[in-house]
Amino acid sequence: MNTTTAQPLTLEEFLLLPETKPVREYINGEIITKPMPKGRHSRLQGKLCAAINHVAEEPLVAYAFPELRCSFGGRSIVPDVAVFLWSRIQLTTDEYLSDNFELPPDWTIEILSPEQKPNKVIGNILHCLKYGTRLGWFLDPDDFSILVFLPEQPPLLLQGYDSLPVLPEIELPLTVNQVFAWLKMSR
To answer: Among 15, 51, 156, 160, which is least packed, fewest CB within 10 Å?
Structure first.
């Protein structure tokens, strides 16, 4: 994760800048470049979005967005997966999906990349919780663990056959082992 230390910008000025690849986040007045997703990160992100959307999209319960910019509370962050309940998905006046989401997701999921500092990533999850996010997951593919964050509760470190909490509106029974089994791609 690189930090850009140029002339300080406001959040509003940052949001006027063109998007870049890799994406940049605005955190505590700093512009931070997120590392490009690599194999394990990309696979987990894709499978999580697909699994959540498989059970939540058609009944119009929720939708999982990969790499969606969410700007709120003085930050502009791009969670690896941002899950919004259907009623909170931002729409234009003519009912099309909006490009700008200026609210926290209901559920935020971050997948640690080797180049990232865990506390910076966890800091984004905590920021989301402070502003109304109901659930946060922090996946560490190196030790096959998931740190779960719930509002006003200590984090839970889950491993192995531990069942993962999801939003109560979403029926998705998953264990930690099931999530990390997606990384094994046998022929």
So the answer is: 160
Q: Would 108 be classed as within a structural domain? A: yes
Residue 22 lies in a domain: no
Contacts of 112 (CB under 8 A, 6+ apart): 118, 121, 138, 139, 140, 141, 142
Check which CATH number belongs to the domain holding 58 and give it: 3.90.1570.10
Separation in Å, CA 12 to CA 24, 29, 102, 132: 14, 11, 12, 21
**Domain containing 55: what range?**
37-181
Can you tell me whether residue 145 is helix, strand or coil? strand
| pLDDT tens track for 139-165 | 999 999 999 999 999 999 999 999 999
pTM: 0.92
If DSSP codes are grouped into helix, strand and coil, which group holds residue 148?
Answer: strand
Q: For 85-99, b where at least 16 C-beta lie within 10 A, e where not — what string?
A: beeeeeeeeeeeeee
Based on the structure, what is the number of domains in the chain?
1
- 9 domain-assigned: no
DSSP string, 91-112: B-TTSPBPS-B-S--SEEEEE-
Contact assessment for residue 148 and residue 129, using Cβ atoms and an 8 Å cutoff: no
